[in-house]
Input
Amino acid sequence: MVNAAQSGDGSSSAWPRFVTTYALVITRIEARLKAAGLPELAWYDVLWALERAPRSRLRMHQLAENTVMSRSNLTRLVDRLEINLLVARDRDCSDRRGAFAVLTTTGRAVRRKMWTVYGPAISELFDGHLNAAETLQMRSILDRILQAARAHGP
Output
């Protein structure tokens, strides 16, 4: 049997539907953040990764691993966050490998304000369309796909 990836039409694959759904939901969330006068979603992802980290600080490579962006895009974003006083860079004198990105008090406050828009948007546009069993099933499926993708490396 030829699968959708082999035939090229995607007709029997969930992939096209997943990509389209993801893109549309993210676009809707971005629009809600913008309408509220809040930064783009990528800012939230970085601020949230830092807030969850021990002492709210991570090396840039660790931050890249905890977000879904390239290292070069992440560096530019952290530069913007630093200019806006949401993140500070802390050079570790004992280790010359680089600096830590550190969440500031202002960054924590902005992340929380963003969540007042982002959280309800997730509920309305995504979670609200799944019952408890579907949520568990989807998480299990996505975890399996995520583990396989991580196992295949970059």
